[in-house]
Structure formats: C-alpha cells, structure tokens
Write a structure and sequence with these properties.
Structural class: mainly alpha
Radius of gyration: 24 Å
Number of helices: 9
Number of strands: 4
Order of helices and strands: HHHHHEEHEEHHH
Largest sheet: 2 strands, antiparallel
Oligomer: single chain
Length: 201
C-alpha cells in the first residue's frame, strides 16, 4: 500500500528520442533510451553527471553494460564525455556527459527539446488544477475534464480552457466564464458543449 502511494507521488517524467536515433540500427534499444535520458537531463546545464552506478540502477543493467552503452554512444558521435579530476589529483571527481551539439542535427534537436519543455512548463503553470472525478464521459467524449476553480457547473478540458484563454485573453475569458456559470445556474441549462457556448458567446 505504501509502495503504491510512493509511486503516485513520484512525478511522471518523459524522455524524447528523435527519429535519427531510433532509426540507427547500429545501436541497441537500450542505448537509444540512454541517449534520451542524457538529453532530458542535460536541458538545464547542457550536461549531466551520470555515473555507471546510476545507470545500473536506472536501467537495471550490469556495470559492463552501462559502460558499453556510454562508450558506444560516444563512438557514434552522439555524446561527448568530459572527465573532471579532483584538484591536484588523478582521482576522478565526476564524469560530465552531454549531447554533442557541435553536430547541427544534434544542436537542432536539443534546441527544439528545450523549447518544448518550456512550453509544457508554461502550460502546467497556466492550467487550472484538476479535481478527481470531474469527468463527464457523455458530454465531452471521454476527454480529461477539469473543474474550474469554484465554478462547478462548467466543465472544460485542459486544451479547451487554454484555447479560450488564447482566443479571448485570460481576464476577458474568466469574466465571461463567471457570467456563463451564473446564467447556467439561473436557467438550469444543460448545454451540449460548454466550450462551444463560451466560444460563440
């Protein structure tokens, strides 16, 4: 029971692997996933510090496999590795791994990835909070439906909510939403689509 709760609390994360990596028949699927993991974790600083131990735990593989995957991606020219040693010592302090953005196709991919991530984060920040159970299978064709703030009689999907904000602006949309909610309550209306009603005034 506790394990299930921990899984629910864990943030869902995605990695994006480009077609040119997936289509490369010279590298196994595990290395393709590793490339996506490296790219995802390099978006902020431009590199990540993955140790073999981390890769072993993350992908459930042995140490030799972890080392081989990293070296294969480096030999293929997809990543670069920079070994940082401790000051006045030959002892390795960390291993910086990054996508080789000196290659135009990889630089384009990383720029696109950063933009997509920023868009997703912006949408998460703008979207209203979802409430459990606010799903209306009949009226909205099984879409995820959000219950807007304290307005419980107007149901919109996240995409519909964002679309209306984009079209009318946040202030105008929210003002219209309150009016629409009040009208719904007053006349006990049951519109087929709240989105269409709000969009068409």
């Amino acid at each position: 029971m506790d394990q299930e709760s921990d899984k629910e609390k864990k943030q869902i994360r995605f990695i994006i692997v480009p077609d040119f990596i997936i289509d490369d028949s010279d590298i196994p699927d595990g290395e393709k996933l590793l490339f996506g993991e490296i790219a995802s974790n390099s978006l902020e600083k431009g590199f990540c510090w993955f140790s073999n131990k981390h890769l072993m735990e993350r992908f459930h593989i042995g140490e030799r496999t972890a080392s081989r995957w990293v070296n294969d991606l480096r030999k293929k020219g997809y990543i670069t590795i920079n070994i940082v040693k401790r000051k006045n010592s030959e002892e390795v302090d960390e291993r910086q791994i990054k996508v080789d953005t000196t290659k135009p196709v990889l630089a384009e991919y990383m720029n696109w990835y950063r933009q997509k991530r920023q868009q997703v984060m912006a949408n998460i920040g703008n979207a209203p909070p979802a409430k459990n159970g606010a799903v209306n299978n009949k009226g909205l064709n099984n879409k995820d439906v959000i219950d807007l703030k304290d307005i419980t009689n107007v149901l919109l999907s996240t995409e519909e909510y964002q679309s209306l904000i984009n079209e009318f602006g946040k202030q105008k949309f929210e003002s219209g939403l309150v009016d629409y909610s009040n009208w719904n309550q007053k006349v006990n209306a049951h519109p087929k689509s709240a989105f269409d009603s709000l969009k068409n005034g």
